[in-house]
Amino acid sequence: MGAVSLASAFDLRSRRIPNAIPGGLLLCALALTAAGLHPLGWGQAALGMVAAMLITLPLFRLGWFGGGDTKLAIALGPALGLLPFLAFFLATSIFGGVLALRARRLGETEIAYAPAMLLGLLALLPLKWLQA
Fold first, then answer.
1. How many C-beta neighbours within 10 Å does residue 123 have?
2. Contact present, 102 and 78 (Cβ < 8 Å)
3. How many domains would you assign to the chain?
4. Selection from 67, 77, 25 nearest residue 59 by Cα
5. pLDDT tens across 78-119, in order?
6. Angle of CA points 19, 24, 128, to nearest 5°
7. Strands (E), the chain
8. Residue 109, class by beta-carbon neighbours within 10 Å (0-12 exposed, 13-18 middle, 19+ buried)?
9. Of 11, 17, 27, 122, which has the fewest beta carbons less than 10 angstroms from its beta carbon?
10. pLDDT, mean of residues 40-52
11. CA dihedral 116, 78, 130, 122 (to 10 degrees)
């Protein structure tokens, strides 16, 4: 949550996400998995990362996703695992659409997408509470 909040702040201010944020998030997720402290395990971490890559890299190539957004989503893949990542991306897409409509109404040509990712991540919190 902290990494995505920080990325959102940078994205809102400069429309850039420093590589250290998704890089640090990815390293943290992999280190926790390697240490056995991440509840997902290697299989789910790998599936989450592959899903993130398969979804976001084509969007980046089409110009619909920025490089920082792509790297942040790919770093979230192993942190969340497959199904939570897919739920996150669906929620993020909905919030991103709302932000895009707002930007269009205001005459803006681009949006900071990391805030949509933060909202998408926040939308997952009730799902965790229901599992407890």
1. 16
2. no
3. 1
4. 67
5. 999 999 999 999 999 999 999 999 999 999 988 999 999 999
6. 120
7. none
8. exposed
9. 27
10. 95
11. -20
For residue 89, what pLDDT is reported?
Answer: 97
Structural domain for 125, as ranges: 2-131
Helical (H) or strand (E) element with 74: helix 67-80
Residue 10: count of CB within 10 angstroms of its CB = 16
- Per the listing, tokens 């902290």 go with 2
Angle at 40 between CA 34 and CA 42, to 5 degrees: 45
- Decide if 23 contacts 78 (C-beta within 8 A): no
pLDDT tens track for 26-38: 999 999 999 999 8
Distance between CA 75 and CA 29 in Å, rounded?
Answer: 8
Question: What is the pLDDT at residue 129?
Answer: 56
Phi and psi, residue 30, nearest 5°: -70, -40
pLDDT at 50 over 70: yes
What is the pLDDT of the chain when averaged over all its residues?
Answer: 93
Q: What is the pTM of this model?
A: 0.91
